[in-house]
Amino acid sequence: MTTVFPGRPVEPDRPAQPTKSPQPTRSPQPAGSPRPADQAPPAPEAGLDFPREWLEFVDPADAEHVIRADLTWLCSRWACIFGRGCRGILSDRADDGCCSHGAFFSDTADEKRVAKAAHELDESTWQYAKRAKRGFTVRDSVGADDRRKRTKTVDGACIFLNRPGFSGGAGCALHALALRTERHPLQTKPDVCWQLPIRREQEWVDRTDGTRVLVSSITEFDRRSWGEGGHDLHWWCTSSPEAHTGGEPLYRSYQPELVALIGQPAYDELARLCTARLAAGPLVAPHPAEAVR
To answer: 3-state secondary structure string, the chain?
Structure first.
């Protein structure tokens, strides 16, 4: 499987230097119980090629920053269903969700933030705390970089993933830590984990009038976003009707993540425009996974 990694989040007051396509290796995973053993066969996933409705606007806080937003995705009702029917990316590892391969760090700051959070865990809250005594990272290859750091895997999944039956609760130990301490998981988890299923692409664009702008495209992290290996995943949630069961549109339920990626002023404008678009009537191009909900 080809694995790639994201750029670090955009700072609220100024977009970061562009990075190509944030590409997580795992998604935000709440602590919880595993899926039922008698789970019915999955509903067919939506294909990869279908019409999308896009919106473009200038960041109110920065005239050189343009947001290009995928309304088909951001107005969908996708929600993480880890512990509530998630089938996992590997056929024999449904309880892992998408934590089977560990998480690549985007940079040193990302790793340090996770290390600081890990120090708050102990054997009662982290199943593999003892296994992490000698460190929780290893070096691995990502594209041309053969020395990229990621979290270790233990018994076939990320070292931070507490397994079903653990007395401290199943699910990501870092996610559970955030919930216990009244923080958002983006403050304790690797960048790749909290960004997914949002894909942010950034590119400096030279316009015909000689001006230059940073375009941040916010869209779905679909199977292609994983690279070549994405087509071989056992199951993927963003294209599955089973995961399109959220109580509110994604642009609302993922507000903290979107604020971290594009900044508060840009998010406020995005939310205003998305709300106005939905009030005007059905999308021209709704997500196909929504149609069979």
So the answer is: CCCCCCCCCCECCECCCCCCCCCCCCCCCCCCCCCCCCCCCCCCCCCCCCCCCEEEEECCCCCCEEEEEEHHHHCCCCCCCCCCCCCCCCCCCHHHCCCCCCCECCCHHHHHHHHHHHCCCCCCCCCCCHHHCCCCEEEEEECCEEEEEEECEECCEECCEECCCCCCCCEEHHHHHHHHCCCCHHHCCCHHHHHCCEEEEEEEEECCCCCEEEEEEEEECCHHHHCHHHHHCCCCHHHCHHHCCCCCCHHHHCHHHHHHHHCHHHHHHHHHHHHHHHHCCCCCCCCCCCCCC
* pTM, entire model: 0.85
pLDDT digits (tens, 9 = 90+) for 73-105: 999 999 999 999 999 999 989 999 999 999 999
33-44 pLDDT, tens per residue?
Answer: 444 445 677 789
**Paired tokens of 116:** 């600081």
Mean per-residue pLDDT of the chain: 87
Please state, in angstroms and as integers, the Cα–Cα distance from residue 51 to each residue in 54, 89, 235, 252, 267, following that order.
Answer: 10, 25, 22, 22, 24
Q: Is the pLDDT of residue 26 over 90?
A: no
201 forms beta bridges with: 217
